[in-house]
Protein 1
Amino acid sequence: MIMKKNFILISLYCLLLSGCRLIPGDLQLIAETPLIEIPDEGDLAPTPSLISPTIPVSTATLTIIPTQTQTPTQTTTPTKTLPPTKTATPTRTATPTKTSTPMPFQTQSESPVYIENFAHPEAACNWMGVAGQVFGTKGDPILNLVITVKGELNQTNVDFVGVTGIPQADIYGPGGYEIVLADVPLPSDQNLTIQVFDLAGQPLSEAVPFSTYTACTKNLIIINFQTK
């Protein structure tokens, strides 16, 4: 029994060494190759392992922090800009001309008339004046109207006043007037104006210009007014 057990062990050993065979009969072990001396366990140096040492891997988990997602700002849609409307240039409004109300009295078509002073024969040529009458619509003379003569005479400003219907002017007809301008005939070229007013000072005619002369035959100027 012990022999059989030893045979089995030897067989296994030979198989491990791959160089032994069993001889039947006397159960001798013949080695075809020299026996390998197995060193003691203490003399064996550790065989370097071909496996690289395991590099420890950190078990710490990598936490990925999600980046904050920015909410896109709302983009304002540009409003459509309307082209500027063309501003019409205001047209210049013409200032209405003042319409003058026609005066009730105008000079007669033949006025003025230049004649020699007959109303004051004693003064003769040492006198110059303007005289006449104011007539209504029916040709009748009108009394108590104011007659003015204004302007420049002999380089002097003058402002004379007369009234129709005074007794001193009856020589020129009913309702006549007379205004003495100078004690000698003097020349003037449209520098004087004559105008009719009522007693309240309201004008009844336009200011009509007239001239004067140095001639003694023209020192009396007759100017009549009439209404239409």
Note: DSSP finds one helix and twelve strands in the chain.
Protein 2
Amino acid sequence: MVQELLCRKFTERSCKYVIWNDYRPEEEHTKPPEEMMRAIVSGEVQAVAAVLLRDYDKKWFFSLPIKKTFLMIDRFPESGWEPIANALRGRKQIAVIASESEKGHSFVVDSLLNAGIRILPQRRRLLTSNDYIGKDWIEIGYRFAKEQLSAKTPPDALVVYPDNMAPGVFYAVQEMGFRVPEDLLLVIHRNVELDYFCPVPVFHLDTKLEHIAERLADSITSAPRKKE
């Protein structure tokens, strides 16, 4: 959906665009797609915006000799962290399941730590691209939620990001008999344009895909600043 919104933003700005869906095997991702490189060399393409930039694509992407930008995971949150932090402060064992923002780090964990919320290292399950590329997000949410909730001392709060995992997390919570929010406080990411069935009361970390696409389009179409 971000791709569709981004295309609409380009159209609103009277920018021509072409979409490349890169389905090459991982071992071929040592250089840009040939079609893309030909378009860059010929001058047909003057900028590239990546909606999904995998770890193994970053080296060649950042070496492109034209303007470029990419959708960073830590651009997502729209709402402040303080309301979520306030809800979590009464909980003693807080677990997080989240995608990595960069190697070994997650903006979700970092934001909560900055808000004064203690999250033990063993309570942090950070997903790398190998965990989710080409895999079922619902199954991932189910498996990692069960992993956290099966601990000898289970968490009394669980923060989950992104929303792709939410259905699987709900399955695990209900299957294991946790009462929400009495036994377990759930904080689940939600793209406000994309609803999902939520069978239990949760706190939401809201994002707006419209704003994400707007910022991405602005960053690639804005004119460079003139040097003083």
Note: Strands lie at 47-50, 67-70, 94-99, 124-127, 157-161, 185-191, 203-207.
Protein 3
Amino acid sequence: MSFMREAVVGGLNDDQLEMANILRRLGVQINVAKLITYLAAAGESTSREIEMGAGLRQPEVSIAMRTLRRENWVREYDVKAAGKGRPHKVYALTTPLDEIIGLIEEGKRKDSAQAIESVQKLRGLATTLGGGASEA
């Protein structure tokens, strides 16, 4: 039983790779970024489908999935395998992609505000120390 959409069978396309790279530049771990991008495009997918579609190895999927679980961005459930064997885990984003992007944006705004506050404090301290140019 396959949950994968045809568009992501061959792996991440150029736009999806660009999205994953932008997420990475914003501080998201690259494997987490690929996982988010893949699940947003493919919808419900098994771990094996994620490996093939996102170009990740099984341990990388497991580690990245921990991050998504911790953030409550993904759900998982078991699907009985055909014949014998362990059931397959199926994963899907529970948080819409635009909401995930909004949360990342909010975090970056807070980081930026803290950085500006630190620079302003630094300027104030420099002024109290005589803060002009150093003499040669």
Note: The domain at 6-95 is CATH 1.10.10.10 (Arc Repressor Mutant, subunit A).
